[in-house]
Amino acid sequence: MKVNISGHSAQGIFESIRELTSNGQLVAGDALPPVRELAEQLGVNRNTVSAAYQRLATAGIAVTQGRLGTRISQQPNAGEQEGVTDTALFDLADGSPRREWLPDLNDVASHTKLNQFLYGEATILPQIIDYATSWFAGTCPKDFAITLCNGAIDTLERMMLAHLVPGDKVVVEDPCYISSANAIRLAGMRVVGAMVDEFGMRPEALQSALEKGAKAVLITPRAHNPTGASLSSERAAELRAVLSKYPSVLVLEDDHFSLLATTEYYSVIPDSSYHWAVFRSVSKGLGPDLRLAFVAADKESVKRITTRLAPGMSWVSRVLQSFVYTCLTKSVFQLHLSDAKDQCAHARTMLIDSLAEQDIPVAKTSDGLNVWVAVGKDCQATTFALSRKGWLVRPGSSFDIENLSQAIRVSVQNLDENSARRFAQDVAEIIAS
Asked: Model-level pTM greater than 0.90?
């Protein structure tokens, strides 16, 4: 493709090529001119063109392939999404809480006193700050500040925007929660997978990624999605020891299942980390529309997030804050939340026990809405075979970063004792075939 690239500086050439990709004159797979050729065409030094191409690669616009040259890269899309479907199959792929486990929002509203606020007033309710401060105290580095974001993924995006630049490497568990991996890629960062076992991220995998220049790590301390793994005290200490050698690495903990978790929380954040955040969203326990995440972070990170929130007036609604505070403090809703936790744990245990009856093991540290079932064969084929028996599950490949999972993710919220037993029998039959 013949296009007119202009510019007399690295930034100018970069902007010219970025504009050509934006308007469709350059598309994924198109080769850029060799460095020497473009330098002669524009009358600039070859180093200037090389610097421009490097910026394009860092921004994810192009990929350098050594002697094969530089080509426009495939731009990321939103990727696979979580949520309910209109399938006729028995849905064990959803990953959402059961509707009956969530509080009745009309009841929440009737128990909540609401107030009008004006521009310029404090955007976080004082009772919310007090609640959050008490919740995080003793579980993260002492010198922390509190802020709110619109859910876990919003927190992840804001922390990356505050500290990283496109092209930076972010370490995640492998396999990884779909939405987290998508958010990192869409922000222009590079996702680096670190293997997990039943106790979470492997320390040697994290060490290897950090040695190769990763700038941030995202860790799920419990109820990891998709595997259900939760960090043990020993594993958390091992990960802290690794991270203590890299104080400039951004450490992010997504404690997304905190309201319903049955496993203990163990932090991986060392006192030496310059920038870090722990975020606890309430959507799993209170529902997707109560989209709020409590965030404890170092003071500089909170300052940067707050600064970026202010110009767009995009604080978390104080009406929403009031509803969440009601759910977290009124006894009637606390009882409902406790019952939901028990029902979720019962459904999960019921499936694990049914699988055990078929000699299919599941890690004892499992927590969350999902169970990770190793099938020992191609997960896509297993998923298809289960669909022919009436079951919809997620193949492990949906969550893979670098490794190839021979597993399926099974969401538990729709199961009863009979369906759990039938499903386990069908899985065993497929594994044996």
From this structure: no
